[in-house]
């Protein structure tokens, strides 16, 4: 390819037409890029599946943690899920406004509140779990249960801080 | 477990102590949750690796696309990478302010500009690619090249819209 400096015509001609397929270079072979694209596809389907219930992934995760750990403090929930406090507070406020969780006093700790699902929250979560199971099955059908098990093992290996203490 | 309604003492006692391990329930077995945790761990390491260069994942992706497709229009770049226009514009403006890409006129299209790497952008990207390779190798060492190849195949299967036309 001949390089012609100061040639305006060349500069102008160098642009590919709008319908040219885009070459992503090394990106599809990088774990971070591939993880992000897969995560976006799965989250998009999750939000589509939960549309009628108006629930997003992080809200679903919070409700599950409260179901399995009634009375947890806010900081414990947000830390366990890797959600920043500044993100968690409005997220939880919104769920509380809808009557799904509630805060109650904790014995021996006058300053903290324990977070609990309400009866409405428990009933709602049962419906959400059924929708989540259908959503999950859609993606498992692409690789089979063995493929999913293998994938989860590899993903947990990536997320495991024990492999790299510097990450902590 | 006995349920005692209207018992304040029970309500207060029900909260687990602050150092109780959190039970994540079904979350670790859901693809979306496992993908998100893995992606966050890999992105966190990427940003750590790129700290001295002050480059984030999406900025790196944009520079790679410009390297492999000089003259692409902004809408083509953002669409190919799945970045919303409202996110892409400030991201690109910041890169342009740092002199890494530039906009040039396109022949036959008076309204659009083509995006190109500058010489500084090309030199910078060469350094970033070396850092990205070291970062990538850290995670590949957790599963070996065969594990990475298997993982990429499964991730691409999740991201592939061809499996579910409704997602498009």
Report the sheet with the most strands of chain A, covering strand number, pairing sense and barrel closure: 2 strands, antiparallel
Largest interface: A-B, 83 and 84 residues
Instruction: Give the CA-based shape of chain A.
Output: elongated
> How many E-type strands of chain A?
2
Average predicted local confidence, pLDDT of chain A: 88
Could you give the order of strands across the largest sheet of chain A?
Answer: 1-2
The helix/strand series of chain A, from N terminus to C terminus, equals HHHHHEEHH
Taken as a percent bin, the fraction of beta residues of chain A is 5-15%
The quaternary state of the protein chains shown equals homodimer
Helix content bin of chain A: 55-70%
Tally of helical runs of chain A: 7
Rg calculated over all Cα atoms of chain A: 23 Å
User: Uncertain regions of chain A: pLDDT < 50 for 5+ in a row?
Assistant: 1-11
Overall SS class of chain A = mainly alpha
C-alpha termini separation of chain A: 48 Å
Summary tags:
168 residues, 7 helices, mainly alpha
Explain this structure.
The structure is a homodimer of 168-residue chains. With 168 residues, chain A is mainly alpha-helical. Chain A is built from 7 helices and 2 strands; from the N terminus they run H-H-H-H-H-E-E-H-H. Chain A has helices spanning 8-13, 31-49, 57-68, 74-81, 85-97, 119-140, 144-159; strands at 101-106, 109-117. The first copy, chain A, has a two-stranded antiparallel ribbon. In chain A, a hairpin with a 2-residue loop joins strand 1 (101-106) and strand 2 (109-117). The longest helix of chain A has 22 residues, at 119-140. The first copy, chain A, is elongated, with a radius of gyration of 23 Å. The termini of chain A are far apart. Mean pLDDT of chain A is 88; it is low at 1-11. Chains A and B meet through helix 1, helix 2, helix 3, helix 4 and strand 1 of A and helix 1, helix 2, helix 3, helix 4 and strand 1 of B.
